[in-house]
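Need a sequence for this fold. Nothing fancy.
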């Protein structure tokens, strides 16, 4: 019994510590509905120069981050001056969510990594590194993948490969026509967009990182 109580006590203590960590992470996270929050800056190393990197989101909006700080600037895509943005900051991570994508994102129809600026930059998917944003479109049925591909091609996307066994197609979104493709792949008004019946979800075609140093 003593041993059981000791084990239970350890588990409770571990749970309390983890809960404290989660609460601190939540407290550190900040949300800025206008994308203008100064946030908490991370100082550069001595002698280092600040650099900026820009990434174009699926929606066509351009997000620029300054290295050594969490300063974020956003330029809406063409015809998107009405869109507002939510900037979410947690330690080491910055996400920018356009208002017309929020409903689809909350419903699990859009891959969250599409708006995770930190991850996009880690993958090398910034505007300088890649002219196209790699995407995977999945369909609810076999015919839907063909229609999804047709929509993407009409919007200027390049088809990388078809994945018939999962009813999907991989495409590259032309950064210069990103807003046009966002409009082509979604429907609805300016306040909130939805996916058409032939598209189930839109994923980022990400990169795998090896988890082992040897095999």
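Here you go.
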């Amino acid at each position: 019994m003593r041993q059981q109580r000791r084990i239970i006590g350890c588990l409770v203590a571990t749970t309390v510590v983890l809960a404290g960590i989660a609460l601190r992470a939540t407290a550190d996270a900040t949300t800025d509905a206008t994308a203008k929050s100064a946030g908490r800056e991370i100082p550069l190393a001595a002698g280092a120069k600040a650099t900026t990197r820009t990434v174009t989101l699926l929606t066509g909006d351009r997000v620029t981050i300054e290295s050594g700080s969490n300063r974020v600037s956003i330029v809406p895509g063409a015809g998107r001056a009405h869109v507002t943005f939510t900037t979410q900051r947690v330690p080491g991570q910055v996400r920018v969510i356009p208002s017309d994508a929020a409903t689809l994102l909350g419903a699990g129809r859009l891959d969250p990594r599409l708006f995770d600026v930190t991850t996009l930059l880690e993958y090398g998917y910034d505007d300088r590194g890649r002219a196209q944003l790699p995407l995977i479109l999945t369909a609810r049925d076999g015919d839907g993948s063909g229609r999804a591909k047709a929509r993407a091609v009409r919007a200027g996307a390049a088809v990388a490969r078809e994945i018939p066994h999962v009813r999907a197609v991989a495409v590259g979104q032309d950064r210069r026509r990103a807003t046009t493709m966002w409009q082509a792949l979604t429907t609805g008004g300016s306040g909130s967009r939805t996916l058409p019946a032939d598209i189930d979800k839109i994923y980022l075609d990400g990169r795998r990182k090896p988890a082992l140093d040897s095999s």
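For context: The helical segments are 2-28, 102-106, 117-122, 142-154, 178-185.
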